[in-house]
Amino acid sequence: MVAVLNPPPTPAAPGPHDAGRARRLLASLLACVLPALPACSIAPTSSPLHPAAEPTPGFAAAAAAIATPALTSADGRTDQRELMAFVEQLAGQADHVHLIRAGRSMLGEDIPMLVFTRSADPGAATLRADGRPTVWVLAQQHGDEPAAGEGALALAAELAGPSRELIDEINVVIVPRANPDGASHGSRYATNGRDLNRDSIRQILAESRQLRKLNLAYEPVLTIDAHEYRPHRATLRQIEPAGVAELYDLMILGPENANVHPRLRELTRELFIAPTVAAVTAAGLSVHETTRCGRHPAGAPLHLALGETDARIGRNYHGLINQVSVLLESRGIGLGKGIWRGAHSRNSPPCAA
């Protein structure tokens, strides 16, 4: 069903969530699994930027296609027009799929949001009252991380058709492209140069304000923030001048801010991260907690630390408002056509989770 709604009013911040509902949610999500990465394939396309080639070293072999725009096109991109056509088609094919305009970017582009629910009304008040837990999937806050958005579109297509029975148990809200302006320019940042994923507290950006209002209104028990990571870190050249690349298919991390309730952090690891890591590993993929390299003076020893604890970062902010919150990062930035294997990894057990 296609609809364009005004964002509902913001309610009070959600309260603590019930562990039993979280367990039911996780079980349902893990049941919605596309074939694991080794069973997936990418059509051998070529373009000046992404020439056809042998599978990228370090990625699992593939065999079945996911039909999102970038994965079926010669240029390996999903532009804004193609994105809107894809989500409109999904919303038109089933009564449990609703398309809502979450807002507009600074340049006036639509930010589409798909709501999957058995309720006839996809509004936040209805979903809060229908007894089913809601999952919020946010992708491509950084415009230069397209596999995140493509994975979200693939998940949406799965929920619209083959795995529609999952919607008997839960509601799912998917924002496949939070930063359409950055996506159109291949930029991490919004039009004014600010980072959406560093704007959760101050809410300077219109995109941030609109999405925060909706997230609070829908009161999800789980928020998944989908990204890509850059495997070629400049700091790693201290180990090898030619460069060092990380080979993890997926990095995952919950909220690390010290003000997130310890029990919620524990539940995030127990109910989401641990089962997801097990499922990813069983699928033949590699996974690791999200790490970062600090700034090191020349000659100083390198060290890795878990992802940042700053409250303005999405996964930390959502933990602070009592949501189970997880960052998923596929390996991708700077790998050219190989990034689309990251979209596949999102639709193996980790994306379904």
Can you put this structure into words, describing what you see?
It is a single chain. The chain is an alpha/beta fold and 353 residues long. A hairpin with a 5-residue loop joins strand 1 (97-104) and strand 2 (110-116). Mean pLDDT is 79; it is low at 2-17, 30-64 and 338-353. Helix 1 runs parallel beside helix 7 and helix 2 packs parallel to helix 4. It has helices at 19-31, 80-93, 124-129, 146-160, 180-185, 206-218, 262-282, 314-320, 340-346, 349-352, and strands spanning 97-104, 110-116, 134-139, 171-175, 222-229, 250-253, 287-289, 291-293, 304-306, 324-331. The chain has 10 helices and 10 strands. The chain has an 8-stranded mixed β-sheet with strand order 1-2-4-3-5-10-6-7, with helices on both faces.
Properties at a glance:
16% strand, single chain, disordered C terminus, alpha/beta, two-stranded antiparallel ribbon, globular, 10 helices, eight-stranded mixed β-sheet, disordered N terminus, 353 residues
List the helices and strands and how they pair.
Blueprint: H1 19-31, H2 80-93, E1 97-104, E2 110-116, H3 124-129, E3 134-139, H4 146-160, E4 171-175, H5 180-185, H6 206-218, E5 222-229, E6 250-253, H7 262-282, E7 287-289, E8 291-293, E9 304-306, H8 314-320, E10 324-331, H9 340-346, H10 349-352
Parallel strand pairs: 3-4, 3-5, 5-10, 6-7
Antiparallel strand pairs: 1-2, 2-4, 6-10, 8-9
